[in-house]
Amino acid sequence: MTTIKDVAKAAGVSSATVSRIINNKGEASPETIARVKRIIKELNYKPNAIAKSLSKRHSDLIALLIPTLNNPFFPELVKEIESAANESGYNIYLCNSDDKRSKVKYYLDSMVDHYVSGAIINSLHVDKEDLQMLEERGIKTITIDRANFEHPYSAVTVDHQLGAEHAVTHLIEEGGCRKIVFISGPKIEKSAKDRLRGFNHAIESTHHPIETFTVYGDFEMESGYEQIRVLLQKGVHFDGIFSSNDAMAIGAIRACHEAGVKIPEDIKIIGYDNVSFSSYTAPPLSTIDQQKREIGKVAVNELVRLIQGQNESPKHHQLKPKLITRNSTTGGSEDV
């Protein structure tokens, strides 16, 4: 592998001179600059990105802190954010915290060490002081959804209460459901709380008499499967399920299949997230689309605006979710 010392030796200059020319610092004659650039091309020298970051005190890296890769929503969100970042000339430094504070702390320190220009934060284990620390070190920040606290920095949120209301209203009005199970996410998670609030509001707003059952999962398939399996084994009768995410809904579908319960004839099911494989379940899953692509674009565009100093006042962006109806509730397929 060609090093900066190889370039310097071939050009008859010092490594420091090569570094200054690479970083457009001048301080060399036009002839020397042209010679060094020619040799860089001939030797196919690739400057070390971290070394350049150290010299500039910033980089083309945007850190993306996510809670998990087990929930299929997050890999799809990462893909959309990375695509938007690449279009703006930035690369993504992916930080998967596995929902552990120890890993969050490690990655926060690593962001500083790598001189990232900005950070997109989606974690329950980041607090206001963490954001303040990054900002004080020149790292612009924006949170997505999972921040359980108010802060003065930029944020992108989805109106999850509205999304839940869409889902439950659909089960009641179009599905005719009168006994509905809500598979909630963790009690401490803000978006789960918002969806529970929307669930309750939809129930309170209808003129139909509705019986409800609320159980709690962890946003992974196994928890949705287990919660519905237990209810069915206990002989609890219900005709509708609203799951806080698609992963738990898919687990619920399996539990129903194993119990000989037909979907949507016996029980109608709707999820939340619109992950790619939700349209390939049997039957295809009705769901709420969080607008992952829009989240990615808005988060990156807002962060780039802050990084480039284009009016540095933080902004809060709220997106509206969208109801997607498929065979698990309607026997048909359409977007609403």
Number of domains: 3
CATH topology of the largest domain: Rossmann fold
Class inferred from helices and paired strands: alpha/beta
What would CATH call the class of the largest domain? Answer: Alpha Beta
- Write down the overall mean pLDDT: 90
Strand content: 15-25%
The best one-word shape is elongated
Spatial strand sequence of the major β-sheet: 2-1-3-4-5-11
Task: Note the run of SSEs as H and E.
Answer: HHHHEHEHEHEEHEHEHEHEEHEEE
Fold and architecture overview:
Helix 1 packs across helix 2 and helix 8 (about 160-175) runs parallel beside helix 9 (about 190-205). The protein is elongated, with a radius of gyration of 25 Å. It has helices spanning about 5-10, 15-20, 30-45, 50-55, 75-85, 100-115, 130-135, 160-175, 190-205, 220-235, 245-260, 290-305; strands at about 60-65, 90-95, 120, 140-145, 155-160, 180-185, 210-215, 240-245, 270, 285-290, 315-320, 320-325, 335. It is of the alpha/beta class and about 325 residues long. The protein folds into three domains: about 5-45, 434 Repressor (Amino-terminal Domain) (Orthogonal Bundle); about 60-155 and about 290-320, Rossmann fold; about 160-290 and about 325-335, Response regulator (Rossmann fold), CATH 3.40.50. The strands form three sheets. It has a six-stranded parallel sheet with strand order 2-1-3-4-5-11, sandwiched between helices. It has a four-stranded parallel sheet with strand order 7-6-8-9, with helices on both faces. The model has no long low-confidence stretch (mean pLDDT about 90). The relative contact order is 0.11. The N and C termini lie far apart (about 55 Å).
